[in-house]
Amino acid sequence: MDKKQFQQDLISWFSAEKRDLPWRRTADPYQIWISEIMLQQTRVDTVIPYYKRFVEKFPTLQALADADEEILLKQWEGLGYYSRARNLQAGVKEVAENYGGIVPNSRQEFSSLKGVGPYTAGAVLSIAYGIPEHAVDGNVMRVLSRILLIEEDIAKPKTRKIFEEAVTEIISHEDPSSFNQGLMELGALICTPTSPKCLLCPVRDHCTAFHEGKQNELPVKTKAKKNKAMQYAMIAIQNGDSVLMEKRPSTGLLANMWQFPLLELPKEILPGEIEEELSESLKGTVQGVEKITSFKHVFSHLTWNVDGYIAKGVNLTVPDQMRWVTAEELELLPIAGPVQKMKTALQTRGDV
User: Can you tell me the distance from the alpha carbon of 203 to that of 209, in angstroms, rounded to the nearest whole number?
Assistant: First the structure.
């Protein structure tokens, strides 16, 4: 490979064809950091409005460091993978406390922060600070597996090292920001997972897989394990103008988010059995259970199959992690995707 010519072809194409994205209009490492965390496992079109609202709500690193977690999660509501938001805030707090509010510009220091992996560190350091650091994600591995004809399985963690070394070897030291973003943009627009647009590719002349007719065989990637399915009943328990909400545990899936009480179902369950179980656990009377919806929600590693019910609660003893909320208060609570689906079903019926 003619390294200099490859850099020039890639950077020239990126400069001319790059999408106008809001995080590309700033050199603020804090805001670029936010965008990189949001873009993990989430489409660009989905991220744009969230990014704009988030930066408006928390315009400075200190504003995010000082934010109440419930307000933070509400801003993140709908993006999913909520541990990203909590880890981002934890990392930002470390910067505020240990680095005087200035995002560190060394890989070692930045990578030591909560939630900052090798890709995020390289992306922020190269884009915000112009430091020639590798930023290797799935997009970049796909592009380089074709250009350099790398046939190792990209699903294996050890393979990433091969690509990190490759980027370190070929990255532009004059414009590492445009080089790394160019690789990412190429993967998003041209060198796509299926049917890569080779005839439009600005670096086709440098691509070994194209010249050998192997572009559709790469990257090599073993299939992930099968998604596990879980069955739940989600119950909106009403008392007058209020509905009972439950805060999830502080660790694990959807930590600290709010939900309607949730029962894991080992089998099909009858409304009468739901009334019995909830009446016992809440030390009162849950009655009039009626099924109003069914839906599926897919997480990265499991699927929730949910039957949604509505019920009335009388003389309930509400535990610490639950509270009665009005329709107005419900709008302020951070809730995740499956709970949003239940809430929509209730609103459609006029129940909240």
Answer: 12
pTM: 0.90
Residue of 36, 94, 133, 246 marked active site: 36
The pLDDT of residue 328: 95
Could you identify the residue written with the tokens 């989430």? 42
pLDDT at 110 exceeding the cut of 70: yes
Question: Tokens 């041209």 correspond to what residue?
Answer: 190
Mean pLDDT rounded to a whole number for the chain = 95
Q: Which residue has the tokens 């406390």?
A: 97
Say how far apart CA 100 and CA 88 lie, in whole Å: 17
Mean pLDDT of 16-25: 97
Our answer to whether residue 36 is catalytic in this structure is yes
Q: Are 76 and 85 in contact (CB under 8 A)?
A: yes
Phi (first) and psi of residue 43, to 5 degrees = -70, 150
State the residue for tokens 């991220």. 47
Q: Which of 261, 255, 256 lies closest to 243 in space, CA to CA?
A: 261
Looking at residue 267, its pLDDT comes to 65
Residue 124, token pair as written in the block: 């922020």
Spatial contact of 40 and 84, defined as CB atoms under 8 Å apart: yes
Q: Are 209 and 145 in contact (CB under 8 A)?
A: yes
Among left, alpha and beta (phi > 0; psi -120 to 50; other), residue 252 is: left
